[in-house]
Amino acid sequence: MFKDYFKYYKRRNPPPELESVIDLSNSASEQVRKLPVQCATQYETDKTIFGLKPINSWEIFELPHIPGLIFIRNPFTSSGQRYWITRCFKDYSRKPNKLNIDVHDVLGEKETWWDVCTKGDRRAALLIPKLRWATFGYHHNWDTKHYTEENKIEMPIEVEEITKVIAKALGFDNFNAEAAIINFYRMNSTLAGHVDHSEDNLDAPLISVSFGQSAIFLIGGSKYEDPAHALFIHSGDVVVMSGESRLRYHGIPRIVRACKTPWDDEELRDDVLVDSKDWCTAKSFISDARININVRRVLRPEQMTLTTCQPRRTWFSSRISIFSSAIFTLNLVNKFK
Length: 337
Ligand code: OGA
Ligand code: MN
Fold this sequence. Notes:
13 strands, Jelly Rolls, about 325 residues, globular, binds manganese (II) ion, alpha+beta, binds N-oxalylglycine
């Protein structure tokens, strides 16, 4: 049962055995199958783009026992890692994005989390670990689990582009980044088991990119009672939940200190560069943190917007609306008789 696996991997004393956690950075694993790059994008496949290594060098895997779950082993250059880690801490942690710390009223009108945490303010020590999530695009509503047209801001172009490149390389042609959550984890954080079913379009893949400390990703079945598999996610790894796996229970029972820190590697040339002072700060933050960029498509292909008073149509609700519009037409006909 998912809950039992979660409890086991979350346990502090004694800590769990990690031998059976699937590690795709060790390609000897028999439980995985290598996939070819599906198709080229408008970008040349032999160049770096948005901090990604040339697409023709990516290592893509699938897990035959979890259909639709696709894993790309760290396709980022080390300066790509530095770029995305810094963007998340510095830029995605400010308005107009929504942040978990908004409700705590800890920041003044003009203050940003990054400024307060990097400029010698005495609130920094308390505030650094308080940042847990940021949302943009259609804002994820943690209470209602519903997206609405009114609760939406622009999606940063680089998030749109990078997820398009990733989707295309896996053969998903029409991916549109419409909602994103940036999860910030500390070493003792967990993310409880859940299914991401708020999106109107559940056929589109969910793209999840992680940086910093490693995590144990637990994925179960479509029912909470189903057993689960545990996988390591390391810095730069991309997990794509598509097809049948899109609606499986999953969660993060444990953050594990990374054995390798690919953000520290040297590189001579790249397409993305970060200010060295900003990186120095972001590097100190990531030494005790993990970042997950979780990107979803919300709308169905023919859908232009979400209309607030129209929940997702089920077979039952669409029958009711056909029925009520028939009554409405009948009333109109009667009126004009
Ligand atoms: C999520 C999620 C997984 C992760 O944000 O919905 O499942 O790897 N995140 O942090
Ligand atoms: Mn999720």
